[in-house]
Amino acid sequence: MFILVLGKRNEAEAIMNGRHDLEDQHLDRLRSEFTGHRIWRAVRWDGRLGDWVASLHDPSAGIDPTVICSDAAALRKALRVEAERAAARKGLR
After folding, report:
1. In the chain, what are the domain boundaries?
2. Radius of gyration of the chain from Cα atoms?
3. Mean pLDDT score of the chain, rounded to an integer?
4. Tens-place pLDDT, residues 4-21
5. What is the DSSP letter of 61?
């Protein structure tokens, strides 16, 4: 019985490691696509990774100083909107 539980634990750890690898890939892609922002994961009260956060470091890349979303896809979409807003602002000057 102990071996079975240990086996399930190792299986769960492998799944979590795979999830973290995928999230790291998402972070890398976001960081390379949106270089005007510092992109990172917030840490929840329980120590687990939480929201996806982008802090504006290049004013030509966005308007809002911080963008927070619940997942990588939502952050990518929000940062594309930020880029459009920044481009529109440049056109007004």
Report:
1. 9-92
2. 18
3. 86
4. 455 555 554 555 556 678
5. G
